[in-house]
């Protein structure tokens, strides 16, 4: 029997498997993470090669996922640093454990299919027990209406800026954050969808019942599913100002460019390498989330100085992530009596 791939060792075989997902960056990132964790555990803890794993090894790793050892856990760090760890403190949720097992089972099945492995030990391992939860809008993660309104008012004030060089540069960064937050909060986009949204996919569309046309944005989301979402007038105004900061005309004939791009590039090797050879490279999903979190943290301090802001609002704002704005959109849509069937799964 000969293998269908030219892989002299396990790492090359795994790279061959991951190469199948080169055109699906989110999937590639997730699968790489799971396989990387397994390789580290197999070599460091079990002392076996991935291709030599038995059912007993797989069961041991399945148990490890529920309670990773301290040597494998740590706060989020740059992968280039010595403090990076493959797991966050507290281990994985039951759903994440089950996801990891399914990813590994599928990867080993492919390695068997291409004749790199003789058999798949994960086929004899059951998924961790999970509870299938009702898919619903997570109201607790959504910002209350008054907090959402107040947040937008603070954003607008921060974006105004003045003629001072330093303050104007800060205002430009705030205008970038405002465009990002409104794109998620008013259109219900996921972080990755908003980060990779493009100008050529944002168009004016006529209303079915007549009247003024509306802006609509087509994005490609999970599982490569394409969908079109409405974009509010406030979001379009925010995008126009962000484009003006870039020296671009938002209303020029359709251009091929990301809707939102970094105006300040960190002076780090990876950042300079990514942006040096590209014209207006978009944010990565993580960098997009970091942009939003930084803005929220700074606004939380400002809200904390106001006696009229409830403490509960401050706590929620301090724990708000980029994804919370998607829940905010869904909650507001349901409150406006939009059919639950048309509200996106969050």
Overview of this structure, please?
By secondary structure, the protein is mostly helical. The protein folds into two domains: 115 residues, DNA polymerase, domain 1 (Orthogonal Bundle); 197 residues, hpI Integrase, Chain A (Orthogonal Bundle), CATH 1.10.443. 49% of the residues lie in helices and 5% in strands. The protein has twelve helices and three strands, in the order αααααααβββααααα. It has a three-stranded antiparallel sheet. It is globular, with a radius of gyration of 23 Å. The C terminus is likely disordered.
Compose a concise summary of this entry:
The protein has 346 residues and is mainly alpha-helical.
Topology:
Elements: H1 10-19, H2 25-46, H3 55-66, H4 94-113, H5 145-160, H6 165-187, H7 191-195, E1 202-205, E2 214-220, E3 226-231, H8 233-245, H9 269-276, H10 285-304, H11 311-318, H12 324-335
Antiparallel strand pairs: 1-2, 2-3
Helix pairs in contact: 2-4, 5-6, 6-8, 6-10, 6-12, 10-11
The CA-CA distance between the termini, in Å, is 47 Å
> For this structure, what is the CATH homologous superfamily of the largest domain?
Intergrase catalytic core
Low-confidence segments, given as residue ranges, are: 134-139, 334-346
Second rung of CATH, namely the architecture of the largest domain: Orthogonal Bundle
- Which strands sit side by side, in order, in the main sheet? 1-2-3
Name of the CATH first level of the largest domain: Mainly Alpha
Helix content: 40-55%
Gyration radius from CA atoms, angstroms: 23 Å
Number of domains: 2
What keywords describe this structure?
346 residues, DNA polymerase, domain 1, 2 domains, 3 strands, 5% strand
